[in-house]
């Protein structure tokens, strides 16, 4: 595959419906991946339908035009696909790497265009489809996903299994990346016995189940009694924020603090003063915030059958649960079982998760080579 290893590096198009300034885990990972690929010597352009600046941290961003759907704010029009074809016809790229969320008309369309033009194409799925899996399967059948020469990947084992079932095609794992050293907390905070401080970082939307946080908090406090005061810091923004803020007022500002969106540096500072990370999301594809918490030394309390099972081992890095009721029990256990909490925290402070950006770039390039092989097999 020497054609994919030119001396000057690969010319890579990262395609995604969503990009900064729209803010979320997918958008941040998109730009982080672009930075990591560029640091490894590759040329990278981002192609998106999200309006915004023409560059991000020096990375060119080609923002395709198109009619925007109200409320959902995504585009799907012939204009953007004509633009994309013209970009590919210019011969600007060796590889097209598509980042795919649930609502992703640009991603789906550009995948077919690039693959049909004979350009090595990789798709990375970032979302759990769950009850929408039949819709993904229908899209796959319309686009002949099982036979088109595309290297399908997903950010976790859980998403890879679900997506492979829907598409009827092999899907390999290409996880998100992290700079683990940036999240390390040199020393755990001096913790008293009268407060157990939880933190949750999420996009505050129905899909993430932020209202469950309050049920978990109340049930855990009832189980513990007056021995320890359980508090919760909620970090993030989204359409459910108004409701979350009202619930926080009812719970009491001495119990729940809603911070809104915070920088990574500010989140790291809050992590340094917390005891555990709590995420009740049932449909979590990867859980980058949970991974950041692990790197900061926090025990993670979350759900089973999610992408987080790739890096959270039960009672080693945190506690995995099947329901919000079990999560409340897990909070109570960590709050009252100091040896368990300290052991998990120590495990996480010592952990070096296999998601360093240098490794992710190597894995991505391996997928680009896989995509080139698939294209070669079709052309024979």
Topology:
Layout: E1 11-16, H1 25-39, E2 43-48, E3 55-56, E4 59-63, H2 78-89, E5 95-100, H3 105-116, E6 121-125, H4 133-142, E7 151-154, H5 157-167, E8 171-173, E9 195-201, H6 212-224, E10 229-235, H7 241-251, E11 256-260, H8 264-271, E12 276-278, H9 288-295, E13 300-303, E14 318-321, H10 324-336, H11 338-350, H12 357-379
Parallel strand pairs: 1-2, 1-5, 2-4, 5-6, 6-7, 7-8, 9-10, 9-12, 10-11, 12-13, 13-14
Antiparallel strand pairs: 3-4
- Briefly note the structural class of the backbone: alpha/beta
Number of domains: 2
User: pLDDT under 50 segments (min length 5)?
Assistant: none
Spatial order of strands in the largest sheet: 3-4-2-1-5-6-7-8
Termini separation: 15 Å
Q: What is the name of the CATH architecture of the largest domain? A: 3-Layer(aba) Sandwich
Q: Give the total of beta strands.
A: 14
CATH class of the largest domain: Alpha Beta
CATH superfamily of the largest domain: Glycogen Phosphorylase B
- The name of the CATH topology of the largest domain is Rossmann fold
Q: Mind telling me the C-alpha Rg?
A: 22 Å
The average pLDDT is 93
Number of helices: 12
Description:
With 380 residues, this protein is of the alpha/beta class. The chain has two domains: 2-177 and 356-379, Glycogen Phosphorylase B (Rossmann fold, 3-Layer(aba) Sandwich); 180-350, Rossmann fold (3-Layer(aba) Sandwich). It is built from twelve helices and 14 strands. It has helices at 25-39, 78-89, 105-116, 133-142, 157-167, 212-224, 241-251, 264-271, 288-295, 324-336, 338-350, 357-379; strands at residues 11-16, 43-48, 55-56, 59-63, 95-100, 121-125, 151-154, 171-173, 195-201, 229-235, 256-260, 276-278, 300-303, 318-321. The strands form two sheets. It has an eight-stranded mixed sheet with strand order 3-4-2-1-5-6-7-8, with helices on both faces. A six-stranded parallel sheet has the order 11-10-9-12-13-14, with helices on both faces. Helix 9 links the parallel strand 12 (276-278) and strand 13 (300-303). Helix 6 (212-224) crosses helix 10 (324-336). The radius of gyration is 22 Å and the shape is elongated. The model has no long low-confidence stretch (mean pLDDT 93).
């Amino acid at each position: 595959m020497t054609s994919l290893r030119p001396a000057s590096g690969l010319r890579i198009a990262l395609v995604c419906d969503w990009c900064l300034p729209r803010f979320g885990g997918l958008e941040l990972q998109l730009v982080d991946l672009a930075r990591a690929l560029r640091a490894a010597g590759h040329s990278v352009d981002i192609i998106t339908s999200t309006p915004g600046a023409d560059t991000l941290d020096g990375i060119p961003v080609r923002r395709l035009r198109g009619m925007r759907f109200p409320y959902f704010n995504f585009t799907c029009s012939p204009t953007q696909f004509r633009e994309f074809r013209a970009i590919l016809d210019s011969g600007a790229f060796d590889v097209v790497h598509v980042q795919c969320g649930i609502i992703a008309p640009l991603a789906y369309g550009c995948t077919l265009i690039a693959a049909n033009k004979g350009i090595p194409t990789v798709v990375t799925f970032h979302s759990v489809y769950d009850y929408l899996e039949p819709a993904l399967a229908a899209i796959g059948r319309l686009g002949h996903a099982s036979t088109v020469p595309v290297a399908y990947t997903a950010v976790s084992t859980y998403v890879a299994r679900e997506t492979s079932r829907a598409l009827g095609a092999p899907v390999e794992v290409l996880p998100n990346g992290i700079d683990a050293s940036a999240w390390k907390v040199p020393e755990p905070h001096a913790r008293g016995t009268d407060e157990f401080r939880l933190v949750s970082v999420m996009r505050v939307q129905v899909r993430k189940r932020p209202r469950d946080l309050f049920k978990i908090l109340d049930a855990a406090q009832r189980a513990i009694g007056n021995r320890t005061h359980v508090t919760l810091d909620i970090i993030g923004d989204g359409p459910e924020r108004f409701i979350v803020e009202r619930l926080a007022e009812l719970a009491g500002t001495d119990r729940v603090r809603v911070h809104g969106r915070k920088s990574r540096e500010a989140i790291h500072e809050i992590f340094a003063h917390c005891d555990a990370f709590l995420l009740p999301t049932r449909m979590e594809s990867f859980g980058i915030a949970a991974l950041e918490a692990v790197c900061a030394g926090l025990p993670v309390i979350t759900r089973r059958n999610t992408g987080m099972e790739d890096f959270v081992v039960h009672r080693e890095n945190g506690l995995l649960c099947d329901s919000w009721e079990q999560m409340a029990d897990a909070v109570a256990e960590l709050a009252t079982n100091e040896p368990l909490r300290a052991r998990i925290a120590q495990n996480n402070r010592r952990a070096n998760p296999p998601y360093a950006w240098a490794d992710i770039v190597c894995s991505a390039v391996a997928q680009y080579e896989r995509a080139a092989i698939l294209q070669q097999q079709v052309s024979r």
